[in-house]
Specification:
It is a single chain. The protein has 485 residues and is mainly alpha-helical. It has one domain: Up-down Bundle (Amino acid/polyamine transporter I), CATH 1.20.1740.10. It has 19 helices and two strands. It has helices spanning 28-40, 43-54, 58-82, 89-97, 99-135, 146-163, 166-197, 200-207, 216-227, 234-237, 245-271, 277-281, 287-293, 299-334, 353-369, 375-385, 388-403, 434-453, 455-478; strands at residues 420-425, 428-433.
Length: 485
């Protein structure tokens, strides 16, 4: 039966066959690659800025932020096996609390994904410019307006790649992730050997002063560390296009958590131990190039290769941002949370083509408007905004992870997060997920630190939600729908 023809609704999701027009083409490696790529690419841009504020305690900041990453990731794994549809957090919040809360969760992710596309397109342009300096002996790609124009060109190319289907987009991710894992493995293996052999471990521990861990600078660094883990939701966003989601999603989520934590914590430690943290902080545009160049014998060649993988991983993160924002808005459109045009699927390619075009275009427009400004001006604003919307969505995901355990229609998720507490509710015992409770507390704490320490991001972030609220009210009233249900 053609994908656009209506069939009876699914009892778990409440969606008809027309909502299932997306092809299921992603396997374990493809699903893992999405989760790893969207988070793993953050390492290429975050380590230097993190060292600037956390100093030698950068690995500790990452370790604290990882609590949010682990707990929220496991909650996503449970909910996406219960509801294997596109949309992620906004869909779960709608099921748990109603459309208004679903809209807020989705609107926050839309902000974050759009920024992700712009930010990592710029990072891609930056790494390409660095390679041009080596091979072509010119820095023209690092100067305005070419710096932004190359980023826009990357967005346009990836937009067309996603229009023809996620299969080709996913294969691109899978190849680059495989290369990146091998590269990180070489750096970590050689770096750890060097750190142990030359006594850098003890020297690093002596630099970490306990009183510094309560300073404003370290607290600020926690928000930057959290930025290193933004992208947790990428796997669940493509749940509707994942083969055997009940089996694949929990496995790929756990694998990505282990891989990302291993890479982030190891590379962060090496970046402030085998070289002084001040050196890493001073090379915030390419911290991994600086780290790899410090390795004996292979440093020169490896640092050039890291520039190549940095370009590729930044391109992959731009790509996963396009995948994410298009799937969130597609899901919101078919739930009457955004204009219905967002839920349209291309009849030939079976992709949400309207959303694939609109939001990358917004990201490209942001770069074009700022193409004659110094790159650091735009990047400072982007850094302030990068966590704002995602943390709101993660708060809703963890709240939903708790609330949906109490729902009578909670289904039989093939995977349930560990650490549960049984409590009586309406004559039966309900297992409350302590993982989701911990995730909720950690996300809320991170968000309050963020709005307290990023004034510009605070203003723009709240403005984004005010605009969204106006659009939501107008849309619901125009369709004669209740605002809260």
């Amino acid at each position: 039966m053609p994908f656009w023809r209506r069939q009876k609704k699914d009892s778990r999701t409440g969606l008809g066959e027309e909502a299932y027009g997306l092809k299921r083409e992603i396997g374990v490696w493809g699903s893992f690659s999405m989760g790893y790529a969207d988070v793993g690419a953050d390492v290429y841009v975050a380590l230097g800025i993190l060292a600037l504020y956390a100093h030698a305690a950068a690995p500790i900041a990452l370790l604290i932020a990882s609590i949010t990453y682990i707990t929220t990731g496991l909650t996503y794994a449970e909910l996406s096996t219960r509801y294997p549809v596109a949309g992620g957090g906004q869909f779960y919040a709608t099921k748990a609390f109603g459309p208004l809360h679903g809209f807020l969760a989705g609107w926050g992710l839309m902000l974050d994904y759009t920024i992700d596309v712009a930010l990592f397109a710029l990072a891609t342009s930056g790494y390409l410019g660095a390679m041009a300096q080596v091979f072509l002996h010119t820095d023209v790609l690092l100067r305005p307006p070419w710096y932004s124009l190359m980023a826009v060109a990357m967005i346009v190319c990836l937009m067309f790649l996603n229009l023809v289907g996620i299969r080709y987009s996913s294969k691109f991710n899978e190849l680059v992730v495989a290369v990146n894992i091998v590269t990180f493995g070489v750096i970590i293996a050689m770096g750890m050997y060097l750190a142990v052999a030359l006594g850098h471990v003890g020297a690093w521990a002596a630099q970490v002063e306990p009183q510094f861990l309560t300073s404003d600078s370290f607290l600020y660094s926690l928000t930057l560390a959290m930025a290193s883990f933004i992208g947790i939701e990428s796997i669940s966003q493509a749940a509707e296009e994942t083969k055997e989601p009940n089996r694949v999603i929990p496995k790929s989520t756990k694998l990505s958590i282990v891989a990302v934590l291993t890479a982030a914590l190891s590379l962060s430690f090496l970046s402030v131990s085998i070289i002084p943290w001040q050196v890493t902080a001073g090379s915030s545009q390419s911290p991994l190039v600086t780290l790899s160049s410090a390795l004996p014998f292979v440093g020169a060649g490896l640092s050039l290769w890291v520039s190549v993988t940095g370009f590729l991983m930044s391109a992959v993160s731009t790509n996963t941002g396009i995948i994410g924002v298009s799937r969130v808005t597609f899901s919101m459109g078919r739930l009457n949370l955004t204009p219905a045009v967002f839920s349209k699927i291309h009849r030939r390619f079976r992709t949400p083509y309207i959303t694939i075009i609109i939001f990358p275009a917004i990201a490209a427009a942001v770069l074009l408007v700022n193409s004659f400004l110094p790159g650091e001006v735009l990047l400072n604003l982007v850094a302030s905004l990068y966590n704002f919307g995602a943390l709101i969505s993660y708060i809703y995901v963890n709240l939903s992870g708790v609330a949906l355990r109490f729902k009578e229609d909670n289904g039989s998720a093939s995977y349930k997060a560990p650490l549960n507490l049984s409590i009586p509710y309406k004559g039966k015992l309900v297992k409350v997920s302590l993982i989701s409770v911990i995730g909720l507390a950690s996300c809320a704490t991170m968000w309050f630190i963020l709005i307290a320490s990023h004034p510009l991001g605070r203003v723009v972030g709240f403005a984004w939600f005010i605009v969204g609220a106006i659009m939501y009210v107008a849309l619901r009233k125009g369709k004669g729908l209740k605002l809260l249900g």
